[in-house]
Design brief:
about 170 residues; single chain; 5 helices; five-stranded antiparallel beta sheet; 5 strands; Alpha-Beta Plaits
């Protein structure tokens, strides 16, 4: 194992956005919305945990370079099935901030779980993923929504075109 040499790379602006979700029971979500969680303000604690974790990423991920972060924004908001976490991390450096953004949303989601586990041990931390990154040699990358791809495939089938190399099924055949 070795840490990649980034010494010759130019410093450029880099941005990464990651998301995560904590799925929970409706009663647990209602406690957050009503401010009735015994440990305190879940959303504020999760946001702070996300910022702190982004700053400590090289301590948690063994081969991750320590870099100067210029900005870390963590949003935590209630949604229909639980809580959604979004982190945007920026730097002007020689390497990207994808790991910092992913670490931020994961730590924030873990904090939500920790603060609510006495009410709902069945919570699920899910859909932790990088949504966007920009800067550096590889340029910009943005996640394509899986739902958009399924919709496109359905339209192709309805138009009589096969999906991804598969032939169309004829009526009456299974």
């Amino acid at each position: 194992m070795r840490m990649v040499d980034i010494g010759e790379k130019p410093k450029t602006e880099r941005v990464a956005v990651a998301v995560a979700r904590v799925r929970m029971l409706p009663a647990t979500l209602a406690k957050i919305r009503a401010g009735e969680v015994e440990k305190g303000d879940v959303i504020a604690a999760a946001r702070l945990a996300g910022v702190m974790a982004a700053k400590r990423t090289p301590d948690l991920v063994p081969l991750c370079h320590p870099i100067a972060l210029s900005s870390v924004e963590v949003e935590v908001r209630p949604v229909t099935v639980g809580v959604e976490v979004r982190a945007q991390v920026k730097t002007v450096d020689r390497t990207g901030v994808e790991m910092e953004a992913l670490t931020a949303v994961t730590a924030a989601a873990l904090t939500v779980y920790d603060m609510l586990k006495s009410s709902d041990r069945g919570m699920v931390i899910e859909h932790v993923k990088l949504e966007h990154k920009s800067g550096g040699r590889s340029g910009t990358w943005t996640r394509r929504e899986e739902g958009q791809q399924r919709l496109k495939e359905r339209r192709l089938v309805e138009a009589g075109k096969p999906r991804r190399g598969r032939g169309l099924r004829r009526k009456g055949r299974r």
